[in-house]
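Late entry, written up from scratch paper. The run itself happened at the end of the previous shift, but nothing got recorded in the book at the time, so transcribing now.
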Amino acid sequence: QVQLVESGGGLVQPGGSLRLSCAASGSGFTIDAMAWYRQAPGKQRELVAHITRRGGTTYGNFVKGRFTISRDNAKNTVSLQMNSLKSEDTAVYYCNANLYIDPDYSQYWGQGTQVTVSS
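Output as recorded:
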């Protein structure tokens, strides 16, 4: 059974940094694109960053150069380095992966990790 497990959330002061990681476990799959989403209380889930298997990246407009998404295809992991954090970055962050499990692609989600930016 395939699982995505996130780690690295927590409490950080405004202006601080956090690094989120997500690992895919299981067997019999190939990971296509991976992404991070977030959802704040009372708001819709939104895309934070997306990375293709070849490393092409896109970011939400609010990121403005503060975050960097990366992946390690050999380890089936994706990370999100977040710098210059603001209070409005407070949310539950979810890892997402588009997995190929013969013969179809399917979307998988992690359980979410809380990021709180507060002094």
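The two ends are 40 Å apart (CA to CA).
(Scratch paper discarded after transcription.)
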